[in-house]
Amino acid sequence: MTRSLVVRLMLKDWYLSRATLAVVAVVGALSVGSLQLQHGLTSLLAMFAALFATIFLGVLLPQQTIVNERKLQSLAFVMSLPISVKEYTTAKVLCNLTAFLALWLPITIGMIGTAAAAGMFGGFIPLMVVAALAPFAGFALFVAVAIVTESETWAMTTMAACNVSYSLVWIFLARVPGLLHDLAGPVAVWRPQLVWTITVEGAVTVLSFALTFYLQAKKTDFI
Amino acid sequence: MTDLAVQLEGVCKTYRFFSLNDVALRIPYGQIMGFIGPNGAGKSTTIRILLGLVHQDRGDVRVLGRTMPAEQVAAKWDVGFASEDMRLYEGETLEWHLRFIRSIFPAWDQGYAATLLKRFDLRADHRIKGLSHGQRVKAVLLLVLARRPRLLVLDEPTTGLDPVSRHELLRELADVMHDDRRSILFSSHNTQDIEQICDQITFIDRGRIIESRDKETFMDRWRRIRVELPGGVQLPPLPGVIDVQQTGRLAVATTNAYDSRLPSAYEAAGIRVHAVESMTLEEIFMTNVQHSREGARA
Question: Would the CB atoms of A222 and B53 count as touching at under 8 Å?
Answer without folding.
Answer: yes
